[in-house]
Amino acid sequence: MKLTQFTSRGSSEQSLGVLIDDRVVAVSALALSSNRPDKSIPPWLLEAPDTLDVIERGDRALAKIAELIKRAPSSTYVIDDRFVVPVDSVSFLPPVYPSKIIAIGRNYVDHAIEGGAEPPAAPLIFNKLPNSLSAHNAPIVLPEISSQVDYEAELAVVIGRRAKRVSEREALQYVFGYTLINDVSARDLQFGDGQWVRGKSLDGFAPLGPFITTRDEIPDVQALNIEGRLNGQVMQSSNTGKMIFGVAYLVSYISQGITLEPGDVIATGTPEGVGIFREPPVLLKGGDVFEVTIEKLGTLRNPVVGAES
């Protein structure tokens, strides 16, 4: 199942959507169209739920949404065209609003090498602040305080239930699903500050989405092709199997001292091919478009615009 959050046409109202064929359908519309006289649809499904509602309710919630999809053929779930939108016309929001975004640095050997660093002996952890969260198709606005804004295509992990000191063997049971993230980075700030948080947490520097693909659809998260494209040109091409620290290890490692909550996001690191280490460097500029594509998950696309006045 692929879930997202979006705004309805002509309205700022947020809806929880599910991808059906090439359309995003509001879950509340599915619930309304499937409601029976016996009122068998849970009230929360009728009241504009969000992704976090589903994550916190767990497998039962996913099963109920799957039942709605199966029960309602396309002729019955078109209640209002505001709530059934072709995917190319959707106004996407971030697919979840996490309490924290934890990111991993230098998690692919070739990326560590291209930056002149030794592969880390343990996960290199930093965070991206909430103001950096953005969405599919939202512009990356180049800040006036940086002249070296770079891209980083990454797999993002969405936590499904509270994880505290979990084992690596059990860690994937705490994952709700997977999505895509661009760990946009102001390299001059990142390297100049001597720490990474500011350079990676400027406004809009964490585009996320467009969908969360539930864990059951990804039998092996360490076998997904990942690609980053700048203006259609492939800049990064790798596979999640090349991570130094896999998803299960990261969830377990982080949870030993940082409790992970439902909806939290882990950005798992980027492969080689980032712009700053190229000769000459290739950095984002106004008019560019950067896309992250991950096998089975889809494509995250963001245009780049010049600095705000």
Describe the SSE topology.
Blueprint: E1 2-7, E2 14-20, E3 23-26, H1 27-34, H2 43-46, H3 51-57, H4 59-71, H5 74-77, E4 84-86, E5 91-93, E6 101-105, H6 109-114, E7 124-128, E8 133-135, E9 140-141, E10 149-150, E11 153-159, E12 175-182, E13 185-186, H7 187-193, H8 197-200, E14 206-214, E15 225-230, E16 233-239, H9 247-255, E17 265-267, E18 289-294, E19 298-305
Parallel strand pairs: 6-17, 8-14, 9-19
Antiparallel strand pairs: 1-2, 1-5, 1-14, 2-3, 3-4, 6-7, 10-13, 11-12, 11-17, 12-14, 15-16, 15-18, 18-19
Feature tags:
SH3 type barrels; 12-stranded mixed sheet; Fumarylacetoacetate hydrolase, domain 2; alpha+beta; 309 residues; 9 helices
First and last CA, distance: 41 Å
Q: Report the CATH architecture of the largest domain.
A: Alpha-Beta Complex
Helix content: 10-25%
Quote the CATH topology of the largest domain: Fumarylacetoacetate hydrolase, domain 2
Q: Using the coordinates above, name the CATH class of the largest domain.
A: Alpha Beta
Residues in β-strands, percent: 25-35%
CATH superfamily of the largest domain: Fumarylacetoacetase-like, C-terminal domain
Provide the domain count.
2
SS-based class: alpha+beta
Q: List low-confidence stretches.
A: none
The average pLDDT value, as a whole number, equals 93
Question: Would you mind describing this structure in some detail?
Answer:
It is a single chain. This protein is α+β, with helices and mostly antiparallel strands and 309 residues long. It has two domains: 2-91, Roll (SH3 type barrels); 94-305, Fumarylacetoacetase-like, C-terminal domain (Fumarylacetoacetate hydrolase, domain 2, Alpha-Beta Complex). It is 20% helix and 31% strand. It has helices at 27-34, 43-46, 51-57, 59-71, 74-77, 109-114, 187-193, 197-200, 247-255; strands at 2-7, 14-20, 23-26, 84-86, 91-93, 101-105, 124-128, 133-135, 140-141, 149-150, 153-159, 175-182, 185-186, 206-214, 225-230, 233-239, 265-267, 289-294, 298-305. Strands 1, 2, 3, 4, 5, 6, 7, 8, 11, 12, 14 and 17 form a twelve-stranded mixed beta sheet that branches. Strands 9-19-18-15-16 form a five-stranded mixed beta sheet, with no helix packed on it. It has a two-stranded antiparallel ribbon with strand order 10-13. Helix 1 crosses helix 4 and helix 3 packs across helix 4 (59-71). It is globular. The model has no long low-confidence stretch (mean pLDDT 93).
